[in-house]
Design brief:
alpha+beta; Pnp Oxidase, Chain A; Methane Monooxygenase Hydroxylase, Chain G, domain 1; 2 domains; two-stranded antiparallel sheet; 5 helices; 36% helix; globular; binds flavin mononucleotide
Length: 192
Amino acid sequence: MDNPDPTDFGILDGISEVIATTKSDSGIPNAAPIGIIRNHDRLCVQLFPGSHTRQNAARTGQIVANIIHDPVMYVECTFGDPGPEAFEYPGGMDYPVLKRTSAWILFECIQSKGNRFELTPVRGMIRDKPMLCINRGKNAVIEALVHATRYRLNGDAQYLDLIRHYDKIVQRCGGSSEKEAIARLKEIMETQ
Ligand SMILES: Cc1cc2nc3c(=O)[nH]c(=O)nc-3n(C[C@H](O)[C@H](O)[C@H](O)COP(=O)(O)O)c2cc1C
């Protein structure tokens, strides 16, 4: 659909976590978790320097928000990228989308001030609308991941305590995919 309404995709006021897909000048697809900030009808992202996502979004002027609930995918895309087989180019579109996403929106993005990129929805597709209850384990995986990215930046041990705290919630409230995701996160952190 053209000119999609982000509300139909569950992107409401506040910050919605998605996996952003972008491509490099030479067409290499990239995926990373990014928060879409919505304030009424205004949508933007803060892209911090140093990421492929920021570099690609600045160069191509486009970014795709993949609305996806797979916690393992969030871990894999934070610390690396899935292989090319994880992406597709729907309807001849020249921009990558995750094959397993429930929905996606292609945004035009323009850097406005500092790290801020303003987003305008261009095209989108809803593939499935999973009925999801709030699961504290799934949310805890995302919290642990955010702390892991901070730990990677400054090595502050307080983040390890926070990750242990969220790990306990995952063990109590998560399902098999949340437990797999946190196990993968711990494995990545041990080998770094
Ligand atoms: C839940 C979550 C939300 C994130 N949101 C952002 C964000 O809004 N902006 C940003 O620059 N990085 C964000 N990050 C960090 C990036 O995903 C991370 O730096 C990633 O390694 C960038 O990968 P890339 O170099 O492939 O783009 C977030 C990480 C997580 C786990």
